[in-house]
Design goal:
Layout: H1 2-22, H2 30-66, H3 73-95, H4 109-138
Helix pairs in contact: 1-2, 2-3, 3-4
Length: about 140
Amino acid sequence: MLTILSGALVTAMIIVQLAVVQSTVPAADAQLSSVLVHRIRDVSLGMDVAFDRFIGLGTVFFGFAMLTDRRFGRILGWLGIVVGLVVILGFNLATFPDPPVEAGLFDPGPVTGLWHLLVVIQMTRYLVRLRRGASTTEGQSSPGS
């Protein structure tokens, strides 16, 4: 659920950013326009922080759920917990309200994306094995026939 909420937040953040960049409203006062653009950027950064919190917590809880699931295992589970707590939440809290990149740290986004990619690969591997097992049992005749 937290990860779903993070998807809604990142969508809203991107729409706000695009609206500001693509705006065709003429600026009546250049100084006021500059102030407004900076304040809207602050709103966008706030949405980014909210997104990071939800995706971080979602990753942590997903990692905990994986610890006892044989399809994913402890290694992938612990990696999710570390990515969620340290990389996403830790780096973003340390540099709040600015993104970690602006504070000279690396961007935690690609690390998080890589972990989620590993999860998808593991899920796909499991489903392929499951389907192979189902197709070999379908080809065998049942004992009662």
